[in-house]
């Protein structure tokens, strides 16, 4: 017979993830109380547009951190891939899609370059990507000749600024947006139910049915309220569709594929993973290739958002991506972390930045608050590990 987990036991077992979600909700409520415009349709749409590239970077960074490594070069990769795309499309007149493909190819090549040094030469990722941060930033200056290049054609611009609106009409709001989000909610509910049934089949403990249903209803309400706000503004952002696809794909890779399980195994104990037959070098190499690929996607999205490429593009993006992962529950020692947690961590950073901007907080104040939140998140992780060790 399958055991059920009480609410108290569920909270205790998922204290980090649950605490992060509660913190996210609390931050949203706080800024909504301080400034009613925070939850306005236009502002929520702007949050999606302004921080989508950080969330894309956080997906790739999570795999790197779970592996037990780090990547300090992603901001520079964002810059150099956007610069290459701008030079090809704006200055040389190539079609917009060729600029996108060239940026993706460069990102993959950079990921392979750094993955080689980390995986096959044994140089720590911190050192390799620190060198890459400097190398690719300098390359960006050379590609752009130290000047901004703009504007992109409309098709490229719409990657990060376009909307799907009016496809199904609607009385003052976009029905198509609501339908897409409703389908997503149903898909999430089905996936969660299948996971629950699989756990029951293998006689694993699951939470009580009322807790399970309450969670699904809460998620559905929050998601549909968010969807209605988007539908009341400009409709469904194209970049949000891209982000959702990436979350779905990489969530599946991390949890349901051999490669994903190998990444967690290596981050948990590299020696044991090697003894169990896992190709540690190969997995490490492809994790960095993937990071380069996702950084290139972020580079395309960011350059499209800015409608041009600048030598300073992507500055400090690596720190935002790393912070999103750690705030979202990833461990500093590797082996722990989830895509959903990284997304919540990234949203916390986005909400704090946007909320403080609406309040007129200075850039210095925003940096201080972000740094404090990151430190507290990591301290909480260390505290939980020590507590678990003392109870073992």
Describe the structure in your own words:
It is a single chain. The protein is mainly alpha-helical and 392 residues long. It has 2 domains: 4-163 and 238-359, ABC transporter involved in vitamin B12 uptake, BtuC (Orthogonal Bundle); 166-233. Helices cover 76% and strands 2% of the residues. The chain contains 16 helices and 4 strands. The protein has a two-stranded parallel sheet with strand order 1-3. A two-stranded antiparallel sheet has the order 2-4. The longest helix has 29 residues, at 363-391. It starts with a strand and ends with a helix. The mean pLDDT is 87.
Helix content: over 70%
Q: Could you tell me the radius of gyration in angstroms? A: 21 Å
Task: Sketch the topology as an H/E string, one letter per element.
Answer: EHHHHHHHEHEHEHHHHHHH
- Oligomeric organization of the protein chains: single chain
Strand order of the largest sheet: 1-3
Structural class: mainly alpha
Organism: Schaalia canis
Function: Part of the binding-protein-dependent transport system for D-xylose. Probably responsible for the translocation of the substrate across the membrane.
Subcellular location: Cell membrane
Membrane topology: Multi-pass membrane protein
């Amino acid at each position: 017979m399958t055991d059920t987990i009480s609410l108290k036991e569920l909270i205790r077992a998922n204290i980090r993830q649950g605490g992060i979600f509660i913190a996210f909700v609390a931050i949203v409520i706080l800024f909504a109380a301080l400034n009613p415009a925070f939850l306005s349709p236009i502002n929520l749409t702007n949050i999606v547009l302004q921080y989508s590239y950080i969330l894309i970077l956080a997906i790739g960074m999570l795999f790197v951190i779970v592996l037990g490594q780090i990547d300090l070069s992603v901001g520079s990769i964002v810059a150099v891939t956007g610069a290459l795309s701008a030079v090809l499309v704006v200055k040389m007149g190539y079609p917009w899609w060729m600029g996108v493909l060239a940026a993706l190819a460069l990102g993959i090549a950079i990921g392979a370059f750094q993955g080689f040094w980390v995986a096959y030469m044994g140089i720590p990722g911190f050192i390799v990507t620190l060198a890459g941060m400097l190398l690719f930033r300098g390359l960006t200056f050379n590609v752009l000749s130290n000047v901004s290049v703009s504007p992109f054609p409309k098709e490229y611009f719409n990657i990060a600024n376009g909307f799907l609106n009016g496809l199904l009409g609607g009385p003052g709001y976009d029905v198509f947006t609501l339908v897409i989000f409703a389908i997503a909610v149903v898909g999430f509910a089905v996936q969660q139910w299948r996971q629950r049934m699989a756990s029951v089949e293998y006689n694993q403990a699951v939470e009580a049915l009322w807790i399970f249903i309450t969670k699904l209803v809460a998620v559905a309400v929050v998601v549909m309220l968010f969807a209605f706000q988007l539908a009341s503004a400009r409709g469904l952002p194209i970049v949000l569709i891209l982000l959702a696809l990436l979350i779905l794909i990489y969530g599946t890779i991390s949890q349901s594929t051999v490669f994903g399980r190998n990444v967690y195994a290596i981050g948990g104990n590299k020696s044991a993973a090697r003894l169990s037959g896992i190709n540690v070098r190969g997995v490490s190499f492809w994790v960095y290739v993937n990071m380069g690929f996702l950084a290139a996607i972020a580079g395309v999205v960011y350059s499209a958002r800015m409608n041009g490429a600048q030598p300073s593009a992507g500055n400090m993006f690596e720190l935002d991506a790393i912070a999103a992962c750690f705030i979202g529950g990833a461990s500093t020692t590797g082996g722990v972390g989830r895509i959903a947690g990284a997304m919540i961590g990234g949203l916390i950073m986005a909400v704090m930045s946007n909320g403080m901007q609406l309040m007129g907080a200075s850039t210095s104040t925003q940096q201080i608050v972000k740094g404090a939140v990151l430190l507290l998140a990591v301290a909480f992780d260390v505290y939980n590990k020590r507590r678990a060790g003392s109870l073992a």
